Amino acid sequence: MTSADRSGRRAAAAALLLLAACAGSAAAPDAAQCRADLDRFGVSYTPIPPQGSGSCAVRDAIEVSAAGIAWNPPGVVNCGFARQLDAFAREDVQAAALAHFGKRVRALHQIGAYSCRRETGGKHRWSQHARGNALDIAGFELVDGTTISVEQDWRRSGAKRDFLRDVARRACKRFSVVLTPSSNREHHDHIHIDSGPYKLCGA
Fold first, then answer.
1. Which of 5, 136, 137, 157 has its CA 20 to 30 A from that of 192?
2. What is the pTM of this model?
């Protein structure tokens, strides 16, 4: 091998290392920007180590205790999805509550955030929950202590039903998939929302 060949290989290797460094630094600012956005919006969260592996991997995982509205209990999602949920709570859920009750919501009751599992039945594609990209909402609590339950109020006539269905319709405009008690029996007690690659509105 000539000195020219060796020099050429060294230059190529250096270029590859530079590209790798640039790729690594490109991902970090995105995560940093996402968390900076959450801080600016006032989201209450705790950064946690990456969750799972393979199809269940969530790299930019955070545990959220409040995103626009307090979560009961806190839940693990990816940062980008938390950013969407914050906007949904502040702009959609609160608007629906004011329209139907004249009061704001102080708590969101969730029963499913990150979970390493497949879709219902266990024989299908991976759930968006496995990517920290989904949330199951069981109900809400207003500032005066009034509770709204998906399981109890979705089919009953009145302001609570109208509020829940309004929330679901608004969610369809913001998220990829929304599933409700009107979708199937598996969702009799919650509203599922996710930002996966498919599109379905079950409102």
1. 157
2. 0.83
